[in-house]
Design goal:
Helix content: 25-40%
CATH superfamily: ph1033 like domains
Structural class: alpha+beta
CATH topology: ph1033 like fold
Number of domains: 1
Distance between the termini: 18 Å
Strand content: 35-45%
């Protein structure tokens, strides 16, 4: 299993909206960055990811699971971009803020810290375990 982080402006697509989609999940559409697209092309059903609220909140707020592997993004008229479908698994008991992540020395190399604008990014197993622990799981 691989681990990922999915970033979204909560005003556009929030954790609560994701939860309402249920086990069927929702396309993670609208991504127009080639690196993020390539990450989604690598994802497999069952991979897990952090759901991250960007913008003013800047925090990991939940865990999602890939429920459908890479397919054409239904919002892309060019045919260049793919997406995956993700479903909410569970909220973090305590959101883990970007400040929390930056304050943890062992997370200094996390892509969230180094390339903060990348909307879909890989997370190492060690990073996953530590952020989950920080979030109360």
């Amino acid at each position: 299993m691989a681990y990922w982080l999915f970033k979204s402006e909560p005003e556009t697509w929030s954790w609560d909206m994701q939860v309402k989609k249920g086990k069927r999940g929702q396309e993670w559409d609208g991504v127009r960055n080639y690196t993020a697209r390539n990450h989604m092309r690598e994802m497999k059903t069952g991979d897990q990811g952090f759901f991250y609220h960007s913008g003013g909140e800047r925090a990991v707020v939940g865990i999602v699971e890939v429920v459908k592997e890479s397919h054409p993004d239904s919002t892309d008229d060019t045919g260049k971009f793919d997406c995956v479908d993700i479903a909410a698994v569970k909220p973090l008991p305590k959101p883990v803020t970007l400040a929390d992540v930056k304050a943890e020395p062992s997370l200094a190399e996390m892509i969230l810290v180094r390339q903060s604008r990348l909307s879909v990014q890989p997370v190492t197993a060690a990073e996953w375990k530590l952020v989950c622990k920080m979030g109360g799981l």
